Amino acid sequence: MRRFLSLVTAVVTALVVAQVPQAHAATSVTFAPQTVLGPGVPTTPHTFDQNVVPVGSISLDMAADQTAYVVSVMRANSATIRTLFENEVRCRWAGGEKTMLMGQNVYEASTATPQWADIWLTTRFLVHPGVATTVTCTANVRTASLAYEASTIRLVGGSMRFADTSIDNTTTGQPAQSSVPAGLLNVDATTPVQREPSIDAFELAPGFRGLSVFGDTEYMICHLDAPCDKKRSSQASFTLFVNQWKADGSLCQTDSSATVTLDVPYYVHHVYVPLNKPDFMIRTDSGCVPKFSTYVRTRWLGGETGAVQGVAQNMTDSRGSAAKHDSDMSHAYAVPFR
User: Fold this and answer.
1) Given the DSSP bridges, would you call strands 83-93 and 133-145 parallel, antiparallel or unpaired?
2) What is the pTM for the complete model shown?
3) Could you give the C-alpha distances from 154 to 90, 101, 110, 141, 272, in angstroms and in order?
4) How far is residue 81's CA from residue 38's CA, in Å, rounded to a whole number?
């Protein structure tokens, strides 16, 4: 892939491109603005009610060795009560599935902190079925009120598309991509650093000029097993490290320019942290070879305990359904370009 659209471009595209009829095996779709119900917290302890609203689908006929790049962008605001909002993409084919979601609690519209009341969420990842098949990706809005009363929240707009239908794979024939397994990786004064999501090592064939590397993290405020002051926040920095190695195993070069520091209040609960190094240029001098690794370093800086979230398990296929699936959350991937 030679060029990648920025998030800003993706947003503009989401708002201006006309919806493609699904009968023509669309490779892009624009989401219709709509108000979505957030079911109230059930009165029965240890139960959870989540609305699941499909808002668009795209399809692609793929070869066995083909990898595609899917991007779903959503904007949400106007919550009547603090509401969980998740952007989930389920890509399915005969005998397989790759699903990813990113989510965040959205404050009610009248809040004094508007940055938590009007949000953009981007769910982006690589799809590699490994067989010749048709892949269909469906974008779902997943919502739940954070009160006993039901809420509503506005999907203002957005889109989903195959940003590239043919991404180059690593020398193993697989894409450079990895997700954090199910569970929570806590960060606090005792364990201040986690280096996930990560891709330990991957190699490319010669001839590529560079990589666009992504590390998207879901950061939870207040680890479930830790005491929590709900009036406080958690401060953490997030840095994407990209490394290239030499033939003798020593470091060729490293980059850590993609970084952000956040102060996240408890009631946001979990926050989407996207990082991207779009132009990591590959070196071929001084014994450097096309072998790489990458990770996101999450460093706890203060406040409440935090955690990097792994795969979300047992997500209902639709509201109240017995059928369930798992959705990846924190993940890293790399796209080579020539």
Assistant:
1) antiparallel
2) 0.91
3) 21, 18, 14, 10, 18
4) 9
